[in-house]
Amino acid sequence: MLVLRDGVATRAGVKTGARTSSQVEILAGLAAGDLVITESTVAPGDRVRAR
Amino acid sequence: MRVVLQRVSQASVTVEGRVTGAIGRGLLVFAAQPPTTPPRTVTGSARKIVQLRVFEDDEGVMNRSVVDVAGDLLAVSQFTLYASTRKGNRHRGRARRRPTSRGRCSTRSSPRSRASSAPGPDRRVRRRHAGRAGQRRAGDDRHRQPLARVRPEAAPLYWRLPDVPPPPSPLARRRRRARRRRAGGVRLRALQGRAVDVVPATTTRLQQSVVVSGRVLAPAKVEIGATITGRIASVAVDDGDRVAAGQVVVVLESDELTAALAQAQSSVRAAEAESASGGALGRPTRASSSRRPRRTRALPRANTRARAPCSRRVHRPGAAGRVAALAFRRAVAARRRPLDRRGEPGRRRGAPDPRGPARDRARRARRRGRQARADADRRAGGRRRARAVGGARRHRAARPHRDDARPRRRDAARRADRREEPRGAEARPGGARFRRRLPRHALRRGARHALARHRRPARHRRGEIPRPRAPPFPALRHDGVDRHRVADKESALVVPAAALREASSRSRRCSCCATASLRARG
């Protein structure tokens, strides 16, 4: 999972829990408010900004 | 505006011995803009510069922008890009605009770029190419060439500078400043990388329900029917009702049967009355006995009870006797006729079919055929014989010889025979199973192959493969949401599933319904 940190797409190892068809529960590795990148074309280390 | 870009591993600008700007890996930008350059052009060029994908990615393809590789920018003003070199050896581009005043060059406003504002001659730009040593062949000056020109209108370095425009009015200046502020914002954002869709991880209730459409299958199937044919008067149950053995499900119409019964009873009563008085009035006569319907002799035994008084020949002559006999005949005829034909006038044997002479012929032919087949069956003693048709051997019931039993192919009677005889094994002596209704063309043209194909029994009937079994009753799968362990948590940190990048792209599917699996992992 890629998280936007300091303008750079950063890989975040997360532990997932329950999931539905559209959502996934995150047990560990993220904090509430973290910006998660949903695009698939972003590579780790890319400099990106939130749209 | 003209811009020359060069990828560098490092670059610096030295003015009078003092390094005024230096960068590491990134882009060296030589830019020149005539004074009339609209700010939009400058903005666009700046964006193009930072977005131009000229840096190699992991696969060695030019695929990443200077922003993507987190590179630096060194912007150097270079008014000679507008030099006129067409005539003479000295470039004639007068330095109408002294190299930029601060804030003019667009890329300068980026935090990572350094621009030199020093005038030309003393300035020295050092640069090292970005290409790695191993990539460069001797004499390959690929990297010496400008990698890109931003908005060069033409290849020759020729431009006739227009006159310097009059200074803008205060209002226009303010507007331009505002535009630049906005544009500056754009430039900054461009440097920050491309915009991507992000979603904040939120703590919320995680819940999912499943809506599935399906068909309910019963565990067992029972076909019910009546032993007599008749119209259904009422159906006492509804779809889905629970029924018990012995319960009335369907009521057949009994009007005609009741009427027939009443008729028979009345005739019985009439006969009894007759016999009561007839005993006193006299013996039955020949005349009355001859009125007895001939066909009653063929009646089944069950009917004898109904006509018992009559069969004792107690009718007396005269009008009363004729009436009684008539009623009796009608009652008997009503009983003999099939249910669905009651109410029609009885047709005597040999009477013309009211539906036309063709039906008539067909009927006669049918009768002949039946008779002949019955004879042949008698002769053959019910035994079957194998007969080859179209190379395949199969059993068929003994059939009479063509001459006496099978009318010619085009005969209407034969067609009628084929089509109207009762079908199914029980309709045939010996329960032969092979006969089916043939397609029209097989009859008409006598196409043997079509006939053979049509008659070829299924493989399981020939014993080659076991008879297919009905699939076992499938259990109802979607009988409750619990089976799916649908997620329902009061509070969970949730991100969209699209954000999750799985190590393996193994699809997680529910085995029974092909919807995405909802099972909790771990």
Provide an overview of this structure.
The complex is a heterodimer of chains A (51) and B (522). Chain A is built from no helices and 6 strands. Chain A is mostly beta strands and 51 residues long. Chain A has one domain (1-51). In chain A, the strands form 2 sheets. A two-stranded antiparallel ribbon of chain A has the order 1-2. A two-stranded antiparallel sheet of chain A has the order 3-4. Chain A is globular. The model of chain A has no long low-confidence stretch (mean pLDDT 85). Chain B has 12 helices and 17 strands. The relative contact order of chain B is 0.08. The two termini of chain B are 60 Å apart. Chain B has helices at 39-51, 170-191, 255-281, 286-290, 301-304, 308-311, 319-336, 357-380, 402-405, 412-420, 440-445, 448-455; strands at 2-15, 18-23, 26-32, 53-56, 62-65, 72-77, 113-116, 123-129, 148-150, 194-196, 198-200, 202-207, 232-235, 250-252, 385-389, 392-396, 488-496. Chain B folds into 3 domains: 2-191, D-tyrosyl-tRNA(Tyr) deacylase (D-tyrosyl-trna(Tyr) Deacylase, Chain: A); 257-341, no CATH class; 357-455, no CATH class. The longest helix of chain B has 27 residues, at 255-281. Chain B is rod-shaped and about 155 Å long.
Q: Topology, please?
A:
The complex is a heterodimer of chains A (about 50) and B (about 525).
Chain A: E1 2-5, E2 8-11, E3 15-19, E4 23-28, E5 35-37, E6 48-50
Antiparallel strand pairs in A: 1-2, 3-4
Chain B: E1 2-15, E2 18-23, E3 26-32, H1 39-51, E4 53-56, E5 62-65, E6 72-77, E7 113-116, E8 123-129, E9 148-150, H2 170-191, E10 194-196, E11 198-200, E12 202-207, E13 232-235, E14 250-252, H3 255-281, H4 286-290, H5 301-304, H6 308-311, H7 319-336, H8 357-380, E15 385-389, E16 392-396, H9 402-405, H10 412-420, H11 440-445, H12 448-455, E17 488-496
Parallel strand pairs in B: 3-6, 6-7
Antiparallel strand pairs in B: 1-2, 1-3, 1-8, 1-9, 4-5, 12-17, 13-14, 15-16
Helix pairs in contact in B: 1-2, 3-7, 8-10
